[in-house]
Amino acid sequence: MDFKNKLLTKKKKVDEVLKQYFPPKTSLHKTIFESMSYSINAGGKRLRPILALEVCEMLGGKTEDVMPFACAIEMIHTYSLIHDDLPAMDDDDYRRGKPTNHRVYGEGIAVLAGDALLNLAFEIMLGKIISYDFGDNRGIRAAYEIAKAAGVNGMIGGQVVDLESEGKKVSKETLEFIHLHKTSALIEASVKAGAIIGGASKEEYKALEDYARSIGLAFQVVDDILDVIGNEEKLGKKVGSDMQKDKSTYPSLYGIEKSKEIAKNLITRSLEVLEVFDDRANFLRELSKYLAIREN
Amino acid sequence: MDFKNKLLTKKKKVDEVLKQYFPPKTSLHKTIFESMSYSINAGGKRLRPILALEVCEMLGGKTEDVMPFACAIEMIHTYSLIHDDLPAMDDDDYRRGKPTNHRVYGEGIAVLAGDALLNLAFEIMLGKIISYDFGDNRGIRAAYEIAKAAGVNGMIGGQVVDLESEGKKVSKETLEFIHLHKTSALIEASVKAGAIIGGASKEEYKALEDYARSIGLAFQVVDDILDVIGNEEKLGKKVGSDMQKDKSTYPSLYGIEKSKEIAKNLITRSLEVLEVFDDRANFLRELSKYLAIREN
């Protein structure tokens, strides 16, 4: 199977499992399930769960063992987008071509839907750990890595500095802090969770950590570039929104050409660290290259 | 030591440990720590962590074993208040006599501080489970009970129905749903977590579950009553705010006298179910009575 098909197959598998967590409800509080489900099914690429699945499978781990962790990460990612889009934060009306959660359900429900997705992520992981014998504490270790990456010293830390930097010209160090925390941390945690559940050796874990750090940052640099030169239709949102909001980005601090070079170097680095693996890592190699040339 | 002194001693112990989670920071993202710490230290009664501690200790469990779970519950409670107070939700300017989080730090930071407290709760529990050998899976079981109680089928479910019911006259069933989910669920989880970590037998667990359900609902009914006839200075907020917001409450559906009777019956019930315990449960008995006559 070629890379694009394999990517799509994995995405569909994640989509299917995610749907099972949001069955149609008739209860008093059904609105919140609709709101959570709306954003979960709003067309995400599923990059993070795909990474967790692939890394685990590559190491010989079972898909069903890592799946709850993969879905939990996608829920955390989705909640962060819902809250990021709120009027008090980025104030975005559209995300992936669809009205943002608070535009459909109102701000109050959007806040609660985000909260509920974050909480559900932990419910799902703890539920898996409680009902299934991993033979050691790998389930807890994976959940702990995800918790740290999502928290105040990870993703949320990046969101805070991003929020406080709006309208200011920030240093290159601050911009790297924002990107490494706001975006990379959870991408890294996806790879780590896959590695832990898949039973990676110390050497394998180290290499995968390096890989994740490189593609995580590359992903965000490419995002910044696409916001300047991307195709609006493919992106599902207006280009130039960072500039309009006076957000510091790689292109605004380094220029487009230098930003492209930074992204390219990060991708090269990600391929180098995968050398400890044989052909098993081919999908991850393809994924690196794909992230560099993606259009949305 | 009399009851009030024991209560105060426990509260101080919780206060001290909670403070340790928010050391002063000089990092780029220090604002979020200040904002989290502001609400954590805004004068909460610490009812939930005190319950978890007391139940665990009463059963012969160690304080340090249950403390991270007790603090996690207080963080979840605090995050829910920060989000509840937001303009898009209850739109409250004051809480316990102090400006609400978003009035001090702005709405964006308040959303993130709430998110960060919820996430930190799980980080702390998972960190304890990973670093400490409980000898069985009681740490995970306690964390799972807390996760379920805080989630979409617990506290958040209650918040959703509460939000959607504003300005409407609701049925008694809906009001009970709101109170049981929005308030009772986390109080119940506090008792359950203490019982699980303390190693409760099946019979003890069942009794404590019953106890928690009764005081949880009683707590909220008394809250409703205080909002009508309470002392503003002692409450730290204006009375009549439920009525002003057209919120259905026990007094608005049943009248004050009947509401007082309901609270009294719940307290009586909570004392009855404690009969399986000997003198060990005296503190819990006193706590029940105290909740019925509290003034804030």
Task: Describe this protein's structure.
Two copies of one chain form a homodimer. By secondary structure, chain A is an all-alpha fold. The first copy, chain A, has 15 helices and two strands. Chain A has helices spanning 3-20, 30-40, 47-58, 63-85, 101-105, 107-131, 138-150, 155-165, 172-198, 202-229, 232-235, 241-244, 250-254, 256-273, 282-293, and strands spanning 94-95, 98-99. In chain A, strands 1-2 form a two-stranded antiparallel ribbon. The longest helix of chain A has 28 residues, at 202-229. The first copy, chain A, is globular, with a radius of gyration of 18 Å. Chains A and B meet through helix 2, helix 6, helix 7, helix 8 and helix 9 of A and helix 2, helix 6, helix 7, helix 8 and helix 9 of B.
